[in-house]
Each structure stands twice: as structure tokens, then as C-alpha cells.
User: What shape does this take?
Amino acid sequence: MLPLILREISFRKGHTTIMLCGLISVTALMTAYLSTESAAERETKRVARDLGFNLRILPKQTDMDLYWFQGFSDQTMPEATVERLANYQGVFMTYNHLMASLRQKITMGGGDVILVGVAPTITSPDKKKRPMGFTIKARTLHLGYQVGQRLGLKSGDTLQLSGHDFKIEKVMVEYGTEEDVYVYGTLKDVQGIAGKPGQINEIKAIDCLCLTADQDPISILRNELEKILPEAKVIQDRVQADARARQRQMVQRKFEFLSPFLMVCGAIWVAVLSALNVRERRSEIGIWRALGKGGGFIAGLVIGKAMIIGFFAGFLGFWVGNTMALEVGPSIFQITAKAIKTEWSYLVWSLILTPLLAAAASFIPAMLAVTQDPAETLRES
Amino acid sequence: MLTCESLCKYYQSSKGMVKSLDEINLSVSKGEFLEVRGHSGSGKTTLLLTLGAMMQPTQGKVVFKGTDLYRLNRAERARVRSSSIGFVFQMFHLIPYLDVVGNVLAGDDGNHSGACSKSEALLQELGLGHRLNHLPNQLSAGEKQRVALARAMVASPDLILADEPTGNLDPENSKEVCRHLKRYQEKGGTVIVVTHGDAVHDFANRTIDLKAGEIIPGPLLDPQSDEA
Ligand SMILES: Nc1ncnc2c1ncn2[C@@H]1O[C@H](COP(=O)(O)OP(=O)(O)OP(=O)(O)O)[C@@H](O)[C@H]1O
Ligand SMILES: [Mg+2]
Assistant: This one.
């Protein structure tokens, strides 16, 4: 039966192409969506770490012009500040995580880097979430992409700083942001390198919930927090983070609605085309019957055709979808290009599910073909 | 070898009952070439499809080689068609995407090893040796009908049923098709042709006339060959 189906497929090229295109579109869009989505999920953690922070707490004396120019505060405050913030039982604000860090510009390999010492994340006691971000072991460094390039270092290499050996734990992927010139280490190590023991110069408070959210809360927050943290000042960076998160969620939600819709459209497309094909082949079906072929054979012709086209569509659709994901995924999902990779498991799924979708969709046309009265068509002259 | 008793086929249409076949009694013996004549609408095609296990009659029975065809289930009837009955139609009904050989072998279920060489020999005999790999749309009407003949003949069925096989052909091609049917009959096959023309007449050894679904006694009715 397979050679028969293949001949018919190549004979009615127009019909085949239209059916193929419909299924390719569905598979391609699904593949593109799913691979960008899983990339987006992988990225979410990073995005949240960068942009989901609602508050930055800086040393009071920080020169804000300088801060924005260079990306870190020139002042420091005691490490204990973060503990005090963590223990504060205020009514105005709750948080998920607090991350204290010491940021310092140093020269490394003939260029400037920002050395960031990260204290272990403090998780809010009433939240059960695991700490975000990455944990860094003592005497190891995580290099930003640009730093790695400049120094020609890769993970496993060793680097000497202030007379101590540091192991390069990893070189990060290119983020396309200032993080590419960051070097991360533990707070202790960085305090040692910078000669500022017990000091930090930034606290990020992630996922803060402000209980006065309906009016601009910044001044209230500032007053409240600066009362308990006289050595600090508070900056809220809500706008950009929210906008990005919302945009991403919107795209995601649109696709969540779109994917079943897409499948249904694809199925209807195949069903209609199959039915037209069955109509066109009425006399052929009559002849198969006259030649003594049974209903299983007739149904096999129709469903088999859909499945074979589905198989090719699965293959091509995966290819198109994957290309789409790599090309346009980064812009619509606000994620870095490197995060999207070819998900080979989706190829397997496309090759299984697209033929199945096509088979299901051609079931009714196949039944039309099987129940068609061959005598009717054969009488026609 | 083929008999039918009080065979009736009625169609229920919006304008009332149409009696397409009315109390047909017919007996065809092995090796006969029967011509069934009748005007358009007289029930010729209906008779042919009913005899050929393709259409359930409203009433009556068709006995083919000792089996009451419409007592069989659909699958069993299909098996009878595939092994013992060949059809030829006015519209040829070739499968458009299969070449000549493919069409001839369409009914073959692939377990006859000699089927391919047999079909080619048959096509040679029908003068289509140079057309084996052409598609139906590359053939003339006469050639198409000869392909259809080859398809009907290739499994060496006991019975060939032809519905206006010459209806779309010029006199020359009509004669040729009839000659091939005749040769098949002479080799021991049974042939029933329904037609409203007279191209077949000279080849048949019996002719019956059909009018409004009934067999009418005509001058050409030859009672001596009317035996089971
Ligand atoms: N589905 C149907 N519903 C109603 N009447 C039908 C149906 N099919 C056939 N008929 C009627 O049955 C009668 C016999 O039809 P049939 O096709 O057997 O005629 P025919 O002798 O083969 O005609 P022709 O020479 O034109 O092919 C016709 O009067 C036709 O109108
Ligand atoms: Mg007819």
C-alpha cells in the first residue's frame, strides 16, 4: 500500500503541497514556541536576578552620578546591615531574598573589571523558595564572558589575585550586558582582595512586596527603611523589571492560548483537504471496491496519506520552527540568543505527533471514503 | 454458473419509488457471451452491478457458482469479486496516478509471483506493449479501455461484466474491444455486456432486451441457450 500512497502523493502535487504547508506551519510554530519557551524558562532565573529586584540598598554617602556611571557604589557599609534588614519586622514590606554584595573595580589583564563579592542569599523565613542565583565556592571565580575572552581563560584555569590562587569555576555565556565584564567571587574573598573586610556596598531585595502598592511607595519605603538603616539609602528599580516581565508573560500567555488553537486549525485544514481528496477520488474508490478491496484498504489509503504527509511535515516543520526560534526567539522573548538551542527531543515529538494529528484529522474523511457507495460512482457515466 | 431469481431493485426517491429492476429471472452458463440491450434508464447498469456483487438488490437472489452472493457478508463478497469477477466500465475508471502496468495489477494483492509478467504479456496481446509505463492521461480512449480490459482479465476471472465498454469509443476501437472480449470468452470465460448500441451484437451469442427494469421477449431471444 505504501508505494500506492507515495504515487498518489506525488501525482497530486498541489494537494500534497497545500496539506504539507498547513502541517508544517503548525509544527513549526509549535516547535518555535516550545523551544523559545523552554529557553525563556531557563532565562527566567537570570532575568529575575537582574531585573526582578525591586530594591537596591546602597550606602548613604553614595555619589549617585558616579554610581550610575560605573555600576557600583564608591562607599561601603557594614555587612551587618543586611542582617538588620532581614530581621526587620516592618509592616510595609516583605521580600523573598536579600543579596548583599561588595562591588569593586579592579584591573585585570590590562583592563578594568568589576569584581563582585556575593554573600550567601538570605531567604525570607516565611517563604519556602530556594535561594536564587548561583552559589560560589570559596577561592573560586565566575568570569563574565568578556573577561574570559580578554584573559583567554576557561573553566579549570587558575588566576592569581592579591597573592592568592583562584580557580576559574566557569566563564559565563555572553549576556550582552555589563555583566560581561563582571567577575564573581565569594564576599569573603572579594573583601580580602579589595582590602575591605566586613564591608558591602549593595543589597538587592528581590520580589519585595510593598503593602502600599497603589500609591507611589518609594518615599514611604525610603523613610521607613532609612530609619532602621541610617547608613543606607534605598532605590526602587521597579519599572523596567515589571515591563519586561509583563511583556514576556504576555507573549507566553498568547502562545498558551494559541497552541491548542493552532492544533485545531491544523486538524481542520487536514480534514478539509482530505475530504476534498476523497471526493476527487470517488471513482478510484469505486474501482478499488470493484476489484475486491475492503474498507480497511480504503481507509488506509486516506489515513496513510495523511500520516506520510504528516511525517514529512513533522520533519520540515521542526526544521523551520527551530530556525524561527533561533532567529526571532530572542527578540520576542527578551532573552539572550545563546539561551536558545536546538531541542532535538522536539524533532522526535514532531515526527510522532504530526503524523498522529494528521491521522486523527483524516479519520472522518476516511470514514466518508469507506462508507461511500461504490455502485453510485460506478454507475455514473 | 450465474442465475438470478425474481431480482428487484427499487430506489426510494423524493418523487416516489423507482423500479430499476423488476422481477428479473436470468440464467447465464459458463462460456457464454451475453449482450443485455436497453435504452438509457432501463436498468442495465443496475443489473450489472447487482450481478457483480456490488449492489444489494431489494429482493431476489443472485447465485454465482453455487453461492448466494447477498447471503455473504461484505468481505466475502469482496473476495468473490477479487477472485472471480472482472469489471469494465464506459468511463474506464483507471487509477490516474498508476501507470498502465500499475492499473492492470491494481487488484493484485501481491502474492502471485507471475502477476507482473502475466500482465505484460496480456498488455502485449492487447497491443499496449509500448505503453507499459504511461499514465492514463497519456493514453487515447481506445487504449484506456484496453487497459481496463487487461485489468479485468488479468486475474483470469470466471466472469467479466462490461458496462457500455464501447460507449466512449469510435467504431474501430469498439470492434477491437469486442474482439478481445470475444477471445476471452472463447478461452472459456463468461462475458456479460450491457449496452444501448449495437457494436457488441455481432459478437454475442445471446442477447436479451431490458425495458424499464424488465426483460422483454424480443426477436433475438434465443431460448435454447438459456440454461444454467
Ligand atoms: N440512486 C438512485 N435513486 C433513484 N433512482 C435511481 C438511482 N439510481 C438509478 N436510478 C434509476 O434507476 C433506473 C436505472 O438506472 P441505470 O443506471 O441502471 O440505467 P441504465 O440502463 O444503465 O442507463 P444508461 O444507459 O443511461 O446508463 C433509472 O431510471 C435511474 O433513474
Ligand atoms: Mg448505465
Summary: Residues 53-236 of chain A form one domain. Chain A has two domains: 2-47+245-380, 53-236. The CA atoms of residues 8 and 213 of chain A lie 65 Å apart. The radius of gyration of chain A is 31 Å.
